[in-house]
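hey team, just a heads up i'm posting the complex here instead of the shared drive bc the drive is being weird again. everything in one block, sequence lines first with there labels, then the predicted structure for the whole assembly after. its two chains so it's a bit long, scroll down
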Amino acid sequence: MIAALLLAAATPNLAYTQLRDPAQEADARALMESIRCLVCQGQSIADSDADIAGEMRALVRGRIAAGQTPRQVRDWLVARYGAYVTYDPPLGWATAPLWLAPVALLALGAWVARGSFRRRGR
Amino acid sequence: MRRWLLWLPLCAFGVIVAVVAWGLYRPADRTVYSRLVGQPLPDFTLAPMVQGKPGVSSADFRQGTPRLLNVFASWCVPCIAEAPHLMTLKAAGVPIDAVAINDKPDAVTRFLRRNGDPYARIGDDRHSRLQLALGSSGVPETFVIDARGRIVKQHVGDIRAEDVPILLQTLAAAK
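-- predicted structure starts here --
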């Protein structure tokens, strides 16, 4: 009984316990805010109190405490759940319009502006 | 200024309305499927969950027969609904192993006594470690593993009567 309690104290529940190293905790926290909870899909795992979100927080903290980079942990999750699991999706065919549309619209605006300035100049 | 350009904003608005209407009337399927379908089962070893039944490890799935890996929990209501269909699969000779998520031995024993026990092995996945490694996002889920230990299908949600023949077909094709 006492041994079990000691063991529980030695390995805190990382779903609800911050890491000792503040820099690691900050990394873990930032990553958790960008990972989607799988059952409550509008929330990040940092915001959600669903069981699986807790387990995912524990996984993120455990892996970062073990020396993995946030990028490695994120890639591990994306390899299993797809890009939908992250709120910061990688550039791909589906997300390319999001990145390219502003550039295209700026170019269009410049073209329209050039046209109207030229007319005024005449 | 060309006349037809005047209609461009209205057309753009029309396109936006069409996209929104499409999204409202046919909402996208938000089920999160595992990306590991088609890939080998990740390596794992899970301790036994209940007395008298062995735990599960990835090596059990490389013995030359296709098997089902059922992700369940005694606290999960749809798991009760799928229990009779798992019994049907067992009666058809399908070997079924299970992972109990966030569970306790006596709760699982009670669950099996009440709903039937279709499992050859039950592993204890106390912190959803294997569940996350499998790309599974809830209970119940069922993975079809082929004779060489590759995941060939993931069934999300409870198995219903109409899913049984599909699963049997997939298992027969996975030899």
